[in-house]
Amino acid sequence: MTAQATEKLYYEGLKVGMCSEPLELYFLFSGESPKFDSHCSGLWRGYVGTWKIKDGRLYLIELQGWLEDGNNVTLATLFPDFPDRVFAHWYSGTIRIPQGKILNYVHMGYESTYEKDILLKIEKGVVTDTTVRYNGTSNEPDAAESYGISTMARSK
Q1: Average pLDDT across the chain, whole number
Q2: pTM, 2 dp
Q3: For the CA atoms of the chain, what is the radius of gyration?
């Protein structure tokens, strides 16, 4: 598996990449998953979600992707009653936010290691704990910084 494009997260006034996919649990619990078009090896899930932590709660605020039939997918497509934001009540787990320079690149999923990780423990959509894990210091002056925030562009 190729290294994957991260989900986006607004956290403490910054837009960062997160190495977690909370929407996958929604699809698992609901028993239905749209047939997304994964037109890029760096985006196997076929979509990018944009998330926000507001008042200690996790919200999905934007969704970009395409279905196998070529139709565009937005937040309103999946959540027609909540086209602006959806409280992620279904999600319990840890959101990993890599920070700093890369220490070890792994060409698979989210396995690359960066200087530190911010770890947000989420229980039913509510942040219950925040910790920082320090993984080391890069001695490479030109090392890449964190995961980049990707944009969704589709070519036919």
Answers
A1: 84
A2: 0.84
A3: 16
